[in-house]
Amino acid sequence: MIDDGLDGSYSVGYDGRQNPSKVFTTIENLDAQTTYRLKVYATNKSGSGAESEVITCYTVTIPGQPGKPELVSSTALSIELKWGPAYDDGGSPI
Prior knowledge:
The protein has 94 residues and is mainly β. It has two domains: 1-59, Immunoglobulin-like (Sandwich), CATH 2.60.40; 63-94, no CATH class. The protein is built from no helices and eight strands. The strands form four sheets. A two-stranded antiparallel ribbon has the order 1-2. Strands 3-6 form a two-stranded antiparallel ribbon. Strands 4-5 form a two-stranded antiparallel ribbon. A hairpin with a 4-residue loop joins strand 7 (70-74) and strand 8. The chain is elongated and about 70 Å long. The protein starts with a strand and ends in a 12-residue tail after the last strand.
């Protein structure tokens, strides 16, 4: 079960009844830089078990472009460069 990203109601993110041996899944089409709440429960022929505790996940986005590379030094075997950090980390430390 996954919420709408706005602390709203939950909906089914994945229904494993068609493939009960699968214990992981990917939920697609989420909004970037959004916190979602998720919980799971097991289902078999007798019904569904209790729901898990809620976990929160934060979706990130692609970080911004870093600064222009600058040559620090070079030798016959190596080149040392430096550059400024990206202007935007996409919601997750780089």
